[in-house]
Amino acid sequence: MQFKDQLDFVRQHVKKNRMRIFTTILATTMGCAFLIVLASVAFGLQNSLKKEVLSDDTLTRIEVYNNGNKEIEPTEIKKMKNVNAVTMNTLIQTGNLEANIDAYKGSPEVILTDFKENEKANLKLSKGTYPEKADGVVVGYNVAQILLSKEDEKKLEKEKDASKINIGIQESMIGKKITLNWKNEETKKKVTRTFTIEGVGPKPKKEWEQDGTIRISKENEEALVQDLKTLYGKKLKAEEMIYRTTAVYATDLEAVTAINKALQDEGYATYTVSQQLEEMNLLFLALKAGLIFVGTIAILIASIGIFNTMTMAVTERTREIGVMKAIGASPKLIQRLFVMESAYIGVIGTVIAVIISYIVSFTANYAIPKILYMATNEKEFLTTEIQFSAIPWQLVVIAAAISIGVAILSGWRPARKATKIDVIQALRQD
Q1: By the 8 A CB rule, do 270 and 65 touch?
Q2: Alpha-carbon gap, residue 144 to 173, rounded angstroms
C-alpha cells in the first residue's frame, strides 16, 4: 500500500466522522493556541524590556564604582587593552545654585567632566561642539526649558501644563553667556562664574526624561571647590561637595566582557548593560519555561479527546481491520494508518492554532493600549512601545512539536490495540 493510498484511506475515515473529528481538532487547537498565546506574553515583555535597556545606555559602556577598598585610577584603567575612553563626571551637590542667561534663570545641576574623553567615547551632541577652553560649557538638551523669564512664570501660573505653552529660551543657545551663582543664604555671600555655551547635549531617548545639566571642563574643579569651601566654610570636605561617577568605554562590544572582568580582578565594582541583559534573559527563560509547561498541560488535556476518538475508531472499524488482515495487511501498516490519523488531527489543530495565535497577538498589541487609554485617560498608553505579545518562530516550533507529538502518542495505544484484533472474531462482527 503506497503512502498516497494511506493518506486517502485516512481522509476517507475522517470524512465519515466529521463532527467527532472536528470537536477533537477544536480541542487540540485550543490547547496549542493557549500554549502559544500564554508564552507569547513572556516573549513580548522580554522584547520590550530588552529594547528599553538597549536604548537607555551605550552597549560599550562599563560603569565603575569604588567598593571602599580601592580608589578609581583612570590612568591605570586607560592602559587596559581595548579601553577607548574613561569618563569621570563630578556632580557639584553643594550650594544654592542659580543660572542666568539674559533674562532667564533657573536651577540646573552642574557637572564637571573631561570633554576630550567624552569625544573619544563618541558621545554625540545635538548642537555645537565640545569646548576646547576652560570657560566653555555644554548644556543639557532641556536647559532651555528649565530657565524661565518672569513672563514665563506668569504663563505657568495661568496654565499648569507646560507642554501647552511656549516657555524658556526659544532661540539657539550656542554662543550665549551663562552665569552660575552659588549663594550662601546665611551669610548672603555668593560665588559667580561666567561661561560660554559651545554645545547642547543629545536629546533624551525617553519622552519623560529631562537633561537639565550644565557640563563644565574638569579644569575648573580645583578653583571651584576652593571657592565653595570659602563660601560655605573651610571645614567643608571635598567629598561632601561632590559626587563622582566613572564610566569606561570599550572599543567594541566584544571587548566589554574582557574589560569588565579585568576591572573586577583589579578590585573595582562594575555594571554593564550586558550584565543586565544576561540577568533579564535568565529570568525570562525561567518564566517562558513555566508558561510553556502550563500550556503543555492544556494540550495534554486535549490529548484525552484524541485518545477517546481513536479508541472509538478502532472499535467501530473492527470488521474493516479484520478484512485488511485477511487480505494480507501487516500489523505495522494497520498501526501506521491509525497513528497517521491521530497525527492528522494534531497537524490540522496546530496549523489552525498558529493562525489564531498570531491574530490574537496582533489584536492584543493593537487593542490593549487603546483599552488602557480609555480606562485611565492617560495618553502615554497610546505612544507606549511596550509589546504585550510576541510570537517568534522558535515558539511556534516548540508548540507544534509538543502538540503534534502529544497527538501521535495519544493515538499510539489505540493503534497498537488495532494490530491485536483477531481476524476471525473481527469478520464475525456485523
Answers
A1: yes
A2: 8
Residues near 51 by beta carbon (within 8 Å), at least 6 away in sequence: 385
- The total of other beta-carbon atoms located within 10 Å of residue 384's CB is 15
How long, in residues, is the chain? 430
90 bridge partner residues: 112, 244
pLDDT, one tens digit per residue, over 112-147 is 999 999 888 888 899 999 998 889 999 999 888 888
Question: Which residue intervals of 147-272 are DSSP H helices?
Answer: 150-158, 221-232, 238-241, 256-265
For residue 156 the three cell numbers come to 505657568
Q: Which helix (H) or strand (E) holds 113?
A: strand 109-113
Determine the 3-state secondary structure of 109 from DSSP: strand
Q: Are the C-beta atoms of residues 29 and 353 closer than 8 Å to each other? A: yes
- 200 near 174, Cβ under 8 Å? yes
The reported pLDDT for the residue numbered 200 is 93
Give the C-alpha separation, 133 to 356, whole Å.
63
Please state the pTM of the whole predicted model.
Answer: 0.63
How far is Cα 205 from Cα 203, in angstroms, rounded to an integer? 6
- The H-assigned helical ranges of 271-376 are 273-316, 318-326, 331-376
Dihedral over alpha carbons 227, 228, 230, 236 (to 10 degrees): -140
Q: DSSP states of 78-106 as a string?
A: HTSTTEEEEEEEEEE--SEEEEEETTEEE
CA distance linking residue 300 with residue 344, whole number of Å:
17
Find cell 529570568 and name the residue.
283
Who's near 382: CB < 8 A, 6+ residues apart? 369, 370, 373
Q: What are phi and psi of 166, to 5 degrees?
A: -90, 115
